[in-house]
Prior knowledge:
The chain is elongated. Strand 4 (155-167) and strand 5 (171-185) form a beta hairpin. By secondary structure, it is α+β, with helices and mostly antiparallel strands. It contains nine helices and six strands, in the order H-H-E-H-H-E-E-E-E-H-H-H-E-H-H. 56% of the residues lie in helices and 17% in strands. The two termini are 43 Å apart. Strands 2-3-4-5 form a four-stranded antiparallel sheet, with no helix packed on it.
Amino acid sequence: MPGPLQYTPLTLRAAQTIFCVLDLTVFDLNFRMISSRDSVTRPLILSGLILFSNLLPAEDDPLPPLPGEMVRLEEAIYTTLARQPGVEITEQQLLQREGDLQRAQGQFDWTVGTRVSDEFVKTPTGAQPPLPGERREDLTVYSVGVAKQFRSGITVSPEINVLDSTDSISRPDATSRSDLALTVTVPLLRGWGTQSTGAQEIAARAAAEGQQHLARAELEQLVFQTTFSYWNCLASGLDLEILADSADRASSILDFVDVLAKGGELDSATRDQARALVSARNALREEGELSYYRSRQLLAFAMGYSPQQLAQAPVAAGEFPAAIDLGLVSTERSDTFISEALVRRGDQIAAGYSIQAQEALLEESRSNLKP
């Protein structure tokens, strides 16, 4: 018997948010019928509903705890593999493919069948007493058998039948008879051969193996996205430091220009240019702050943070690795790396298995066209 349904905290919190939105929508529709004199109480009640939705109890998070505010690359990758919903989805897809393979293999399992029947017939004889005026015939049948279909298409079905019969006039004592039957079914055209009978199993096995390589490719993509977001966040932080330093230097220049302008050494146009420079540098710094904030949000999203946890987006810590000399990598070696990467790509290997599965189903369809 299947166990109770399990809901993740993200699902429960999303459901709570949806319910609150629906409540607000219905409440808004009801408020359209209220006169304008009650417009003062409407914002108060809406504020109360929003406050109530924020006070809903949070569910316990079964996932590992969030990392600290400062994360390194290895911590970001570990958190991705532990909390990213895409990892669990990939695991469920693997289980589904394995289930499909087991179901296809069940076509060639032994099956057991049994049957029990009990019948009786009463027939008037028309005889006068003391002769019996009724004739009763009883018939009881016991049957048990097994069946198995081989991948070649041949089906074997042995069966044992036991027949017990009685007749109140001619055979008052029970008479038993046993029969042993063996049925062998050999398809001549349609359904003959492994490519026809075992096509579903071949396709399911190819799909299961392909799903394993596809799952590896999806996990690699998740790790790559986290790594890319990590380096992007680190670069955005360094850019913000440069922009902030540039804005501070522009402010210092403006102070120096103000002093010279008050002393009559510079004209007002130069001071206006300095002020414009400060405004431009401050605008660039604010843009850098926004870019840095977005990069932190993308890193948190790649690591599997829930919408409620995005406010705790981490900060990438560490330094960029030393750049290698591209002259040390020859063109031949670079081409070798690229060709090996293409051969080992999980999604490309999975596509090959998908082609095998479709070819197996195609052969089955061609076989079914036979009489």
